[in-house]
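Dear support,

We are seeing what looks like truncated structure output for some complexes. This example has two components. We would appreciate it if you could run it in full and send us the complete token output so we can diff it against ours.
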Amino acid sequence: MKSKNLIPYDKIEKYVLIGSPVLLVTGLFWILIDKSDLIGMILFILGILSGVYLVLNRLDRILKFLKEINWKSLGLKVYYILIIIGILILINAIANKRFWRQDFTFEGRFTLSGHTHNLLKEMDSSKKDVKMIFFRSESSLTSSVDDLLKEYKARCSVISLEFVDPDKEPVRAKQYSIRSISVNPYQQQHLYGTVIILSSGLKESIDVIKMSFRNVQGRSMPYPGLKENLEKDISSALLRLSKSKKKIYFVYGHGEVDLDDQQRNGWFETKKIISDENFLIDKVYLVSEGKVPADCDLLIVGAPEKNYLEKEYDIINEYFTNGGNLLVLLEPFSEMNINLFLNKWGIKTSKKFIVDPGSSYWFQPIIPLITEYNYHKITERLKYATFFPTAAPVEMMEKKPAGVTIEPLARTTSDSWIENDLTSKKVEFNKKEDKKGPVTIMAALTKRLDNEREAKMVVIGDSDFAGNSGIKEYGNMDLFLNTLNWLTGKEEMIGIRSKPVVRREIQLTAVKLKFVLYSCVVIFPLLIIIAGVVVWLRRR
Amino acid sequence: MINNIWSITKKEIKLFFVSFVAYIILFFFLLVGGYYFYVYIYEVRDAARIMPYFLNFLGFLSFLLTPFITMRVFSEEKRSGTIELLLTSPLKENEIVLGKFLGTLLFYLVYIGFTFYYLIILSAYGKPDFGPIITGYLGFIFLEATYISVGLLISVMTRNQIVSGIVTLIALLFFWIIGWVSSYLPGILADVFSYLSFLNHYEDFTKGIIDTKHIIYYLSIIGLNLFLTIRLLENRKVVV
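Here is the complete output from our reference environment:
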């Protein structure tokens, strides 16, 4: 059978034949990437026009060719091919559900822990969509996080993954409040590295970059690095999202903060803000319930005016020792038998207030203004100042129970002191009676229960900062919500350990390097050319 | 059948080795590959990561070179008319296609064999992690086989080698570009484009991961292309 050309061509047509699909494809991609771009449109239209030219130029022959086609047989062939493509799509769809995946690196660099595997399996069967967006700069620093996130996606069909460069898409970055880390303030270099995880209207955010300092020629220079054990952070976030809404109980009955009071000292606004953050809120009267409700994710003791019964402290203590989370808010004028409970965990407070002339809200020393925080999950993203109207001190005792870590989060300046005299009209430092600062105003306590669980407590010397009048000012809301989020994030996957990244350094001398260059780039290719010439000559 | 396929394979490899063009392509392959290997050694200096980087680059380099190898496979025989002899011989179309496919693949693997020299250098100067290297080469075989299957399909459609080469390059470019275009697309379209990309499936192999999803994907594309090539050869029609 003689071969025949479907579309015959002359010289110009040959170029148009190649150019047309190139223009079409390039133009199409251009339009898809940048919808407003004129160049893409022009390329696309040129592609179509050249295609039309081809068809018109040889219309008679194309019509003749179309006439010659046996449509029935062609239809059958196309049908046959479509069936085969359909089968292949089916096989691929099954292969995506049932697959075997194995990491062959020496350190198991891409192997997720058993905890994460179990979590991803649960998520797969729950069918709840999870979206991961990694906002990061074009930098090799975060490439291992890319790999880690890709492992999550590969192992779980409900996860979708997207990478966004905030410099190229600033609007999206702003939408998720993505902040950059300044790497070199003098050259205005900055880096982004935040993973946002979204599911069922809830959001989790994980920062992956941390700044460290190293000594360069006697000067301390900052340099960026990745946080350790990111798998733990990501899996913990996924676990939190996969669970239902967290429930917060406020202890009532002793003149604690009032969630329904719309006055200055009330917590009505705060209640709305907490609800907007996807928490459920309820009240509990310990004296009538006799226990902390089983569905309680966080218990708040909000600056009681009256003393609790010892029995009530027993209930709170039992709740905490069994892995419960607790937020204790204090006021200098409240009754202070709460020390009965706090002292057991290495913290004490007193019926005194903090005075800080060094940093205060509108020159009112009894309202300390905190501008610097100790590094902690609660404070790491906080960039605003916070203030605490009349705050009681939160002091750490020398003795604390085993397995307990206490971290002060916010401290007043060294000009501050603990004022003993609540009645005096003139506030001044009295060496004999008052205690010199800095004074801790807020502390976080963690108690390790076993390998998997820990109980958390935060004690803050003030409650007004989060009340109707203070919550929306400065960074007070951020601090308060960060505290709630940290405390209710009890499903921290603390069993996951970070893997050390081992570098297998190559020690190369200048001679060795030259040998690599010459042998790979000069000698080797040259030998091939010589072999080619020999073969060519022999064939001649 | 296997004997017939093997005889075509042998003939194909022999044809490659006596062609001067194959040596020129190998020369470029080693020149560019060697230079990049040197750059990775100089820049990365981590024996565990150099070969994964290099294999990733090899995937890119091969997509540029493969069209020059596959462009002549069928086009040359069509131009010179030897295809008629081949088709009138007792050999079946599927044996011819499989033989030529294997011949081209094995010939290209000889190219790849030269990169073992880089491995020797790496082992002499450092302690490479052989897990990702083995999986990387395995992935490369799948990727290259996919490139070749596309090249053969296009080569069987034309008797003009240049057209065959350029169209193959465009086709491979298409499957290469859709990988990064997918990140700009919305929803399901992004998933489809990303799934169809040749290189997206290759990345895991170079990192040291073997995933049956990727193997099934490559086998599907190779199978479909070879099937279409066989059907087109049976029809003996030339498009351009």
